[in-house]
């Protein structure tokens, strides 16, 4: 990944309506003329400033959108690039986050950009504070990591028109925003295939946060894996989690307390799988002798859990790196051909899964 | 933590030689006059630019130092604050890092500053690239987290005279650079006191990286704890680690293979303690039945290891938050009264420690 090409500050050429740079070039003054406003007013709209009358803003934005206007090229006229990427998490409280940061920082650092890390804690106030900071520092782009931003903040981000990439989208992402995810459905399928091949028929499942697309995809993969082995999914074997240890512990305990407990449990994150380990231990059982456990993520520590965890690897650092590279391309005015990318997941078999030793229904 | 007070761009008042702002005010033009150079030349020195003759630089720097010159106040004359903090790690590969980031981001975010996270991987090339990026983005300050920067980079940082705070210093830090650490010696002592109170006499130890001050302090605390219980430290029970899982595993395995293995092992990090867990499991033993294990850090996942880990808590997020607050004060021109702060460590007893059940020499 090389550095961004240096920008010519006089370059205010923008995309033509068909997204083809060979087409008619549109400049800020053309937009101003068509909108019947001054050039500074168009600049204010482009820069997302609030001191523009709503009607005027709407008119200018319609023109900007009609011409597929690349506002970044324009913004660089006003002030030099800050050479920053803004990376936004809901929370910074998981080893998962550091993997993503690592992948992004690596690419950004080599390109001469700083990676500004923020957490919004799902609080509208914190998100608005972040947005205000973002505007002040004129970042080159934003990477949102399964961020739950409320509508006003999303609307404001669109108005700023900063290049944006979403990692692991929560739900539907705005059109034209590239998203980077993993093949969660295939990952869920591969976990269950591994367990059914070992002979397990009664396989518990602990989901991630229901509102997240990746959670749904993993559960659908789980169901598909069961059905592929001729097993009818049983809702009594499914518990809802939130990706964190504690929910894995409670989900695992509930499953183990069933009259006919599962012989294997597939948790939708490694941290929840470790919660299941603890539920197994507290019951006086052992992993994998009494219960096999599969996780999802392949965090570095899974190699060192006791026993080492069989898990579905999603390439978090690579997802981060790809997000950063995509963002740099957007910032340079390129278009992204495939705006929805899913990197492959891969089952890593370690020592937490063996053939079932208890008999089960 | 409130926002930085707004700076008056005309405020080029600086500290008098006794560090008291009530004293004589010194301006950039006074320095220029005394040095017999132009005001722009002084500015170039203040801003760390290289286009100044070495002799001139030396003369100006001597005057700046003599007057205890607060260069930041000056730099703000030249360009507006970037509202950024630069946070530098050696590596972004541990759950430990995310705790530090969380503490810093929280304070910075509320103060309207962005936290730029970088990793230098102990590579001079990466460190120089970071320094170049730092200059381009005109950060308000730098937080180094046990960073191993080589001398040229350290020298350049001093020349830039950006406010700086060091978290968990590797070795001796530059004079006048505030450092934030934890009471590592007392933490080591408390771990061993807990084990000797349980009745352990043969206690193994796995150190952190030898060149780090915190590693030395933990080991000295370990030795002091043994001696306080009337036990002569035995070098055969000490293994060197590097804070990561694998070194804990190897150190733990070596200790367990001794003819007279220890009944308890104190590892200088939680991740190494988990490596010990795995060594215990592979030997066919169990924690804590056969070997008690104590870690250091109290990472969030220690609550959920099997069994939950007894460990010395160091308040990583609070250390990060204090570093950020100290940096904001430096950036605002305040002085820090106590430049060497150690936050208290605290033993958290969970389920990995019990009285010894095997007899030992």
TrEMBL record, chains A, B:
It comes from the Bacteria. Keywords: DNA-binding, Transcription, Transcription regulation. Pfam families: LacI (PF00356), Peripla_BP_3 (PF13377). Coiled coil: none annotated. Residues 1-21 are annotated as: Disordered. SUPFAM superfamilies: lambda repressor-like DNA-binding domains, Periplasmic binding protein-like I. This is Substrate-binding domain-containing protein. It comes from Phytoactinopolyspora mesophila.
């Amino acid at each position: 990944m090389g550095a961004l090409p240096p920008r010519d500050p006089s370059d205010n050429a923008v995309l033509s309506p068909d997204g083809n740079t060979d087409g008619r070039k549109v400049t800020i003054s053309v937009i101003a003329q068509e909108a019947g406003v001054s050039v500074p007013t168009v600049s204010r709209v482009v820069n997302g400033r609030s001191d523009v009358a709503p009607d005027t803003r709407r008119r200018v934005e319609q023109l900007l959108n009609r011409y597929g206007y690349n506002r970044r090229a324009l913004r660089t006229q006003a002030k030099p690039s800050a050479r920053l990427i803004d990376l936004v998490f809901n929370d910074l409280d998981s080893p998962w986050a550091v993997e993503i940061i690592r992948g992004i920082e690596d690419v950004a650092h080599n390109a001469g950009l700083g990676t500004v890390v923020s957490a919004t804690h799902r609080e509208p106030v914190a998100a608005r504070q972040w947005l205000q900071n973002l505007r002040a520092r004129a970042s080159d782009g934003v990477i949102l990591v399964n961020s739950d931003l409320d509508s006003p903040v999303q609307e404001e981000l669109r108005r700023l028109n900063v290049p944006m990439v979403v990692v692991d989208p929560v739900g539907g992402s705005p059109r034209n925003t590239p998203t980077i995810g993993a093949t969660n459905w295939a990952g869920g399928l591969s976990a269950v295939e591994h367990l059914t091949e070992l002979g397990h028929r009664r396989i518990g499942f602990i989901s991630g946060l229901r509102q997240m697309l990746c959670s749904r995809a993993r559960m659908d993969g789980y169901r598909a894996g069961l059905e592929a082995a001729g097993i009818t999914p049983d809702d009594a074997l499914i518990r809802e989690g939130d990706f964190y240890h504690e929910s894995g512990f409670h989900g695992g305990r509930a499953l183990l307390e069933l009259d006919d407990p599962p012989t294997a449990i597939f948790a939708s994150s490694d941290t929840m799988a470790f919660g299941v380990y603890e539920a197994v231990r507290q019951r006086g059982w052992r992993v994998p002798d009494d219960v096999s456990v599969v996780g999802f993520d392949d965090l570095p520590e899974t190699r060192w859990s006791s026993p080492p965890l069989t898990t579905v690897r999603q390439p978090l650092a690579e997802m981060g790196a790809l997000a950063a590279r995509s963002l740099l391309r957007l910032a340079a005015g390129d278009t992204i051909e495939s705006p929805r990318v899913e990197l492959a997941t891969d089952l890593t078999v370690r020592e937490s899964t063996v053939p079932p030793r208890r008999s089960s229904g």
